[in-house]
Amino acid sequence: MIEYVQWFVNMVETVNSAIEGDRPERHHRADEKTAVPVPGRAPSSALTSPGSSALTSPGSSALTSPASPALTSPASSASPALTSPLSPALTSPLSPALTSPAVAGITRLSATDTVRARIALAIELGLLAPGEQLPSDAEVASALDVSEITARRALKSLAEKGVVTRLRGRNGGTFVAEQQEASRVDAVRAYRGDAAEVHRLIDQRILIECTLVHFAALNASDDQLDVLAGHVQAAAAAADWSEYHAADERFHLGVAASSGLEWAIPHYREALGRLYGYFLPYPIEYLHGANQDHANLVEALRRHDTIEAVAIIDRHVSELHRTMFVGLDDERATSH
User: Does one domain contain both 241 and 314?
Assistant: First the structure.
């Protein structure tokens, strides 16, 4: 995949130069450093060599260890750059991905059914543990791109099926039921039926995001990098998957914005939004581990290291083939 990504980067550089003219001198130096072959020819060893040893992919033991102090500290409020928006049009939350006509089987589901299916599937796969408390209805709605009324209706339906329990009062909330009944939710089948579409969307995201990251390494300003670092800190401080999702979205859209490829960003937003429609709740410990990739990426962007930055994001997104439900289902089938 990395060979084709780098070939695509070269193609985009040619198109971008035709649109905007040649880049500054720093751009040409980076071009010399990242010259790559057309797919089919022997790739450069610099492109295929392993990335920094500091990078750990999701699933490794490093992901279950506590985040470093630098990542877990609250975002600094002293620096305006950490809180100032990059560009509202580029960093605003994605529109509901589930309404896109390009999404396959899940378009047959109502918004309520998509919430029911994603929570039930996360429980079935062991991503949400028995007795675990879910975020508030409003936070679930925000993370899954639906209205609060829709989220409340979905959670009530899951409670009626015995998938979750809903308690009122001071210690109330929504909790994963001790007795697992997630298989009763028929809508889960629509998600599993879209496995091929999910793999295709992951590959599409890799191709576009690696290109954007390449140009972010060339063009990102110090202020933009400070904003990205703030998103990393916010993700590290997230208490649950709904908080993390918001910070994760802002981070990836912020990287795209810092690339300077305005014409490419809408294509990325579409691919990312459609893929987000398939994301499930995950244990926060896992997500904090994955956030280390974000921290490593910001450091590579600060060094204007196009090779390392692209390698980091390629591994980060490629891992979704294994860690999204399509990969977890395959792993379960193999183990049985």
Answer: yes
Q: What one-character-per-residue DSSP string does 233-260 give?
A: HHHHH-SSHHHHHHHHHHHHHHHHHHT-
How far is Cα 324 from Cα 279, in angstroms, rounded to an integer? Answer: 7
Cβ-based neighbour number of residue 186 at 10 Å:
12
The alpha helices in the chain, defined as continuous H runs, are 2-20, 25-33, 45-48, 69-72, 88-91, 111-124, 137-143, 148-160, 188-193, 195-219, 222-237, 241-258, 265-276, 284-302, 306-318, 320-323, 325-335
Q: Domain containing 322 — which CATH number?
A: 1.20.120.530
Q: Which residues contact 11 (CB under 8 A, 6 or more apart)?
A: none
- Residue 245: the pLDDT is 95
Is there a domain that residue 16 lies in? no
- The residue among 157, 187, 217 that closes a domain is 187
* Ordered mean pLDDT values, 10 residues apiece, the chain (336 residues): 60 56 42 39 37 38 39 40 42 45 63 92 92 94 94 94 89 86 74 91 96 98 98 97 96 98 96 92 95 98 98 97 83 59
Q: Say what the pLDDT of residue 264 is.
A: 95
Q: What's the predicted TM-score (pTM) here?
A: 0.69
Domain extent, residue 148, equals 108-187
